[in-house]
Specification:
- By secondary structure, this protein is α/β, with parallel strands linked by helices.
- The chain has a single domain, classed as Aldolase class I (TIM Barrel), CATH 3.20.20.
- It contains 11 helices and 12 strands.
- Strands 7-8-9-6-5-4-3-2-1-10-11-12 form a 12-stranded mixed beta sheet.
- Helix 6 links the parallel strand 5 and strand 6.
- Helix 1 packs parallel to helix 2, helix 2 packs parallel to helix 3 and helix 3 runs parallel beside helix 5.
- The structure holds S-adenosylmethionine and iron/sulfur cluster (2 copies).
- The site of one iron/sulfur cluster (SF4) has 11 residues, from helix 10.
Length: about 350
């Protein structure tokens, strides 16, 4: 392990890269359709890091101990030729795990090519199997059959283990999440239910909308008895459970009610080239400016090291400890900029 350790003793081992702020969906908990309409101004192309620039920064992060890279967004599959970036990341010494998080709508067309380029794993977000609720959960933009075809294509392309993420929001999709569990039980897909988080300022998050991991588990266990499993690694964010009838496993990510800041070893590279050390950080440090004005690898390494060594973020723990009257202030960056 490198000397890249933050003030709370956490190393830096993985990076999430938001390759675009654009998206073909408008999930109400991330990019509500009424705020992100046709005239919304996304970042102009020159503001985005190029694939070459991303690969250079990931190379530097790898020299500091990062071994896992996750490509996300916005919707990463709307950015052209993602295989090019994956090929570049796969060629970096030290990067041994390349994953993608996608809404799945464009995955069926691209899965084989991405796997050939060097992608190892894929996570598909899917919030309901009820076509009406599915439409509600994506701002009426995507088709359920395309996402399901994307998951099948990912399985066929060997992008395993395939994970499916379902964010559960009270009064939006909470009356039918058991159907998703039923659908994926006994398959090679690992399903994870995620608590709705208070990231950003545009989704109108309220604690009452959070369906807690314990409620989710209780409802699942009432249908199919469950047994807890050991975490596979200290930085694994999902609590995992085994169906006692042998039909596989299911996970819950309790980011709100039982946060895991103490094991958070993840940095984020935003769409516009900033290094952000926490989902709730206020803006991070600029890497694109120095990179484009000729900084060498040593200088970029020093910026990253200084930022990580000063890191003391543990927002979710503080929010959980706070009483409802004095919770930490909501921060400014949005999920689609940070890459989830
Ligand atoms: N567009 C891709 C997708 O939806 O998978 C990748 C980007 S999206 C920001 C990454 C993940 O963040 C998705 O699984 C999404 O469901 C999750 N997400 C977005 N906003 C969230 C929120 N407020 N709370 C919990 N999860 C959220
Ligand atoms: Fe798009 Fe993903 Fe955000 Fe939904 S969660 S709006 S698919 S970036
Ligand atoms: Fe990591 Fe920040 Fe989330 Fe805590 S709140 S787990 S430090 S991203």
């Amino acid at each position: 392990m490198s000397a890249c350790v933050d003030t709370l003793g956490r190393g830096l081992s993985d990076v999430r890269i938001s390759v675009t702020d654009r998206c073909n969906f408008r999930c109400p908990y991330c990019m509500p359709a009424d705020l992100f309409g046709e005239s919304y101004s996304f970042l102009p192309r020159p503001e985005l890091l190029s694939y070459e620039e991303i690969a250079r920064l990931v190379g530097i992060l790898a020299s500091l101990g990062v071994s896992k890279a996750r490509i996300t967004g916005g919707e990463p599959l709307v950015r052209a030729d993602l295989g090019d970036l994956i090929g570049r990341l796969a060629a970096i010494d030290g990067i041994d795990d390349i994953a993608l998080t996608t809404n799945g709508a464009l995955l069926a067309q691209q899965a084989t090519r991405l796997a050939k380029a060097g992608l190892h794993r894929v996570t598909v977000s899917l919030d309901s199997l009820d076509p009406v609720i599915f439409q509600r959960m994506n701002g009426d933009r995507g088709k359920l059959k395309d996402v399901l075809a994307g998951i099948t294509a990912a399985v066929e392309a060997g992008l395993s283990p395939i994970k499916v993420n379902c964010v559960v929001v009270r009064d939006m999709n909470d009356d039918s999440f058991e159907n998703i569990a039923e659908h994926f039980r006994g398959t090679e897909v690992e399903l994870r239910f995620i608590e709705y988080m208070d990231v950003g300022t545009r989704n109108g998050w309220e604690m009452e909308q959070v369906v807690t991991a314990s409620e989710i588990l209780e409802r699942l266990a009432a249908r199919w008895p469950l047994e807890p499993l050991e975490r596979r690694s200290p930085s694994e964010v999902a609590g995992r459970y085994r169906y006692t009838d042998g039909k596989g496993t299911v996970g819950v990510v309790s980011s709100v009610t039982a946060p895991f800041c103490g094991a958070c070893t993840r940095a984020r590279l935003t769409t516009n080239g900033r290094l952000v050390n926490c989902l709730f950080a206020e803006g991070g440090v600029d890497l694109k400016g120095p990179l484009r004005s000729g900084a060498d690898d040593r200088e970029l390494t020093d910026i990253i090291l200084a930022s990580w060594r000063a890191r003391d973020d543990r927002y979710s723990e503080l929010r959980t400890q706070a009483t409802s009257g004095d919770s930490p202030p909501r921060r400014r960056m949005e999920m689609y900029q940070l890459g989830g």
